[in-house]
Amino acid sequence: xxxxxxxxxxxxxxxxxxxxxxxxxxxxxxxxxxxxxxxxxxxxxxxxxxxxxxxxxxxxxxxxxxxxxxxxxxxxxxxxxxxxxxxxxxxxxxxxxxxxxxxxxxxxxxxxxxxxxxxxxxxxxxxxxxxxxxxxxxxxxxxxxxxxxxxxxxxxxxxxxxxxxxxxxxxxxxxxxxxxxxxxxxxxxxxxxxxxxxxxxxxxxxxxxxxxxxxxxxxxxxxxxxxxxxxxxxxxxxxxxxxxxxxxxxxxxxxxxxxxxxxxxxxxxxxxxxxxxxxxxxxxxxxxxxxxxxxxxxxxxxxxxxxxxxxxxxxxxxxxxxxxxxxxxxxxxxxxxxxxxxx
Length: 343
Ligand code: NAD
Prior knowledge:
By secondary structure, the chain is α/β, with parallel strands linked by helices. The chain has a domain at about 5-195 and about 235-260: NAD(P)-binding Rossmann-like Domain (Rossmann fold, 3-Layer(aba) Sandwich), CATH 3.40.50. About 40% of the residues lie in helices and about 15% in strands. The chain has helices spanning about 15-25, 65-75, 90-95, 100-120, 125-130, 165-185, 205-215, 235-250, 265-280, 310-315, 325-340; strands at about 5-10, 30-35, 55-60, 80-85, 135-140, 185-195, 195, 220-225, 230, 235, 255, 260-265, 290-295. The strands form 4 sheets. A 7-stranded parallel sheet has the order 3-2-1-4-5-6-11, with helices on both faces. α6 (about 165-185) links the parallel β5 and β6 (about 185-195). Nicotinamide-adenine-dinucleotide binds near residues 195 and 202. This is dTDP-glucose 4,6-dehydratase. InterPro entries: dTDP_Gluc_deHydtase (IPR005888), NAD(P)-bd_dom (IPR016040), NAD(P)-bd_dom_sf (IPR036291). Keywords: Lyase, NAD. Its EC number is 4.2.1.46.
């Protein structure tokens, strides 16, 4: 595969990256992927067994904060593109322990973009042509925009107003990427996506917690009054958006990705309980909804997020393939098989 371009993908033992890698390898035969992941508690190589033996895929365990390692990877594999997923991603953990979020999301992103810049752009003149347009794609979140009231949508022009240490660290990383475009002319793009759901998400997140606790007949914890609204997107639709922006997005631009699927947390839990009640009825309860337990709200809990994805739709022709009703059924089926539950 010597003629193939090699892309460095970071954090792909996690939820979104491990959905992205098989999708991308299958769709394109002209790329090799090198996956750099520290395998923190959030990374799991079982998410990528289907790629293990693919000659166009290589896994490296390591930290994006390790500069020497990054320099080695860029030159050893002649990296010609980066898609940067690696991050600390769980808001609750960022409230308990913000330091590691600053380290990985801010310092790690700086390291990665700076090593890429030096490898691609500080080359002798003759080599420059080949590298100058190498793409750096930074994966970010809609949480950088803060919270919405009952109406309105986040667009790419919405001012940043992050409220949690997680969103502040992601906002900072977005700004660092922006500066490498403005100052050094790097070919970076940023995507800010809404909440993802689908296979391979870590147990700690809302939807896997609802499914697992229901099946184990444990209380299903819901923050506050359950009326916080998120805009849910099926993970493969996010991956397809990333693919489009990586290939066709304009240098220095930001694209919002969102499913136009606003749901309160209470609606999410009710939908999942109703599906499980039909598919796999509880032996002790008339409905899994009886397990719903309201718990003290998360500090600084943003009330509503909703994305306006018009730019991505109209400029690059993106459209979500799943709506929430179809996506959630696929997701539940995946977790039922992970937990070894059969009818
Ligand atoms: P995740 O927590 O499931 O996975 C993160 C991965 O990064 C893990 O495999 C972990 O081992 C790895 N990692 C952590 N620190 C690292 C380090 N220092 N060096 C190398 N690897 C490291 O996260 P996810 O949900 O897959 O999110 C991926 C990206 O997408 C993140 O940047 C996140 O901010 C962004 N995002 C997520 C969502 C969502 O709903 N999950 C929505 C929008 C944006």
